[in-house]
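ok so I'm stuck.
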Amino acid sequence: MTLPGFVKSVTWREWLGLAAGLLAPGSTFLPWTTLTADRPDIEDILAQLPQGDVVRDAWHSSFFAWCPPLPLLLVGLVVVVFGRNRSLRVSGLPHLWLIVAAASLLLMALGWFTLDWEFDADQRGIFQAAGVAIGPGVGRFLGLFAALVSGVAAFLDMLAMRAESRQPRKTRSKSS
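replied:
not stuck anymore, here's the structure
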């Protein structure tokens, strides 16, 4: 199969899975954890600190920040490359994709709830006394969005695979 033929044979759901898989690790280089303050004097102090102390990307945050995007990238690539193989689709490739997306989403949700654990108890105590809030950054939102998009695309692909498998083989058209 030539490259243009391959590109045309990949469904929109698989392209969406790849796009989500590329967005997820791309988001790891954006802020995932940020420190903010309501008081202007504390905000000025935060502004004077090195950027890495106030804003952290996923690679300098917790396991729940840098790990979930990686399986999304891997499954996005696998689905685009192997998604046209009927035996792999029937064997459960869309189901595997859905499981990976759900697991990544779960890990990101755990990371959201354990956001303040990126700092030790002494630091959290100082932050609380100073009125400094530990919050999510834009990268965390984009990573979560990518996991949701991948999960929805996987679910739709799973439904499409079930519909394909119910059709007689001779009348089956190319899925889109």
